[in-house]
Every structure is written in structure tokens, then in C-alpha cells.
Design goal:
The protein is built from eight helices and ten strands. By secondary structure, the chain is of the alpha/beta class. β2 (65-72) and β3 form a beta hairpin. The radius of gyration is 23 Å and the shape is globular.
């Protein structure tokens, strides 16, 4: 054994020619630089889209915050936005989903249904679902909840069959602990513009699968504007886990709305 080990240790180590190693390092550096440039470009696209909504915003010393007005389900809705974070802005997918829910109540009947919204943001979709008779739980990151709660209470108090609830939910984290499947069952899960330039796409898919399990009869309604190649890649991955049907497509706005249930 000692001789065999000694023999093995004495074997010459094959080394890559310096030129080849340098070539591989240069290639890796170029790829990393390309990834960084793409991420920065995607970030600029999102920022430009966010800034385009500032026309009605009121200036503030510390942050830019303003109100957007809508009319859904027979009610005027006033939404407070903030430039502090993408989660406090109204994105086109949310508006498209609200329009769809209002115009297709026979196809998607939310009356007396338990509805969960993930990545609720300003709460527009949750508000409309509440106005349409659903028992709603709106979820997002902890730093989003204050503005989310404000918008929900402002637009649903005295108008709805059920008072909407708010809860913190970080995609992919502590799902079994905070939302055990045996205790939290929903008829519908709403998701609007949750796919964009961020690093939590795997966690998002995990969250969707947690609430929409095989045999659960939970229906996922996902509306999203297609902005980046990564959005299309996520869509293909999404379709591999869910029985997905394209409910409607708005080509000019590049928005798609899917209805999906978990594959067995």
C-alpha cells in the first residue's frame, strides 16, 4: 500500500500550457464582463420604465411619492406609489391582470374564494380581487408592507365582503414554517410582473410550486410584461412545472396572462 501510494504521489502533474491558461482566463473575464454589462442594461431598462411613471408624482424632500387613480369593479381606487423600491410601483402587468379579472368574472369567479397574491407591491391586484368578493391575503417583502397595508385599507374599508390580510413573504424562504400547506390553502394565487431583473427566479418558482401543488386545485394567474431574455427562459421553466394556458396576450404592451395548475 505504501509503495502504491508513493508511486501515485510521484506521478507528474499535467499542467496546462501558460498560453492556454491565459486564454481561458481572458475568456472567463470577457464572459463575466458581458454578464455585468447585461445586468446593468437590464437595470437601466427597469429604471427608465419606473421613471416614466413620475408624471403624476408629488416631489418630496426625502423621496418621490405620488398617487395613481384607477376605476375597477365599480370603485375609484387611489394607489400611493414610491420610488424607494420597484415593489412600491405599479407595473403594467398588474393593471392588465386587474382589467382581465374585471372583464372575465364568469371565467374567473373570485366571489367567496381564498386568494393569495405574491409580490403584491402596491396592492392594486389584491384590492381589485377584494372588490370582486375574494378573501385576500397580500404578501411581499417586509419593507413593502407599510405602503401595501396603507393602500389596501384606503381602498377596501367598507367596500368588501372580507377585510384583506397582509403578510410578509420572502420567496423560497421558510415556506413550510410560515405557510404550512396543511393550514394555508388558496383557490387562486395571483402574480403580476414578478419576473424581471432580479436574482430570485428560482425562489419565485419554488414559491409558486409551494402554493400550487399537484391535486390542490389551486389556480395560478400570472401576468407579466416580457422585457428580457431571462423572462422567456423563466416562462419555459414555468411551463415545465405547470399546466399553463395563455389566457390573453397584449402584443403592443408585450404582456401575457397565464392560467396554470400544477402538473401531476
Amino acid at each position: 500500500m505504501l509503495m502504491e501510494r508513493s508511486s501515485a504521489l510521484s506521478q507528474p502533474v499535467r499542467q496546462k500550457p501558460p498560453g492556454k491558461k491565459r486564454e481561458e482566463d481572458d475568456k472567463k473575464e470577457v464572459e463575466e464582463e458581458g454578464t455585468a454589462i447585461k445586468a446593468l442594461t437590464d437595470q437601466r431598462v427597469m429604471t427608465k420604465e419606473a421613471l416614466s411613471r413620475r408624471n403624476l408624482w408629488e416631489p418630496s424632500v426625502y423621496y418621490a411619492r405620488g398617487n395613481e387613480s384607477f376605476h375597477f369593479a365599480g370603485h375609484d381606487i387611489s394607489i400611493r406609489e414610491s420610488m424607494d423600491t420597484y415593489g412600491a410601483l405599479i407595473w403594467p402587468g398588474a393593471i392588465a391582470l386587474c382589467q382581465f379579472l374585471e372583464n372575465n368574472q364568469q371565467q374567473v369567479n373570485l366571489m367567496d374564494k381564498a386568494v393569495l397574491e405574491i409580490g403584491a407591491g402596491t396592492g392594486l391586484a389584491s384590492i381589485v380581487a377584494s372588490l370582486l368578493g375574494a378573501w385576500v391575503t397580500a404578501t411581499d417583502l417586509p419593507d413593502i408592507l407599510s405602503n401595501l397595508t396603507f393602500n389596501l385599507l384606503r381602498n377596501t374599508r367598507g367596500r368588501c365582503r372580507y377585510t384583506p390580510q397582509v403578510a410578509a413573504l420572502s420567496w423560497g424562504q421558510n415556506l413550510d414554517r410560515d405557510f404550512p400547506y396543511a393550514s394555508y390553502h388558496y383557490d387562486f394565487v395571483l402574480a403580476a410582473d414578478v419576473v424581471y431583473h432580479h436574482d430570485c427566479l428560482e425562489e419565485l418558482l419554488k414559491t409558486m410550486r409551494h402554493f400550487c401543488r399537484p391535486g390542490s386545485q389551486t389556480t395560478l394567474l400570472w401576468a407579466n410584461k416580457i422585457r428580457f431574455q431571462s423572462d422567456l427562459m423563466f416562462t419555459e421553466c414555468f411551463k415545465s412545472h405547470f399546466n399553463a394556458t395563455l389566457l390573453t396576450e397584449l402584443p403592443q404592451q408585450e404582456i401575457r396572462i397565464y392560467k396554470a395548475t400544477a402538473k401531476e
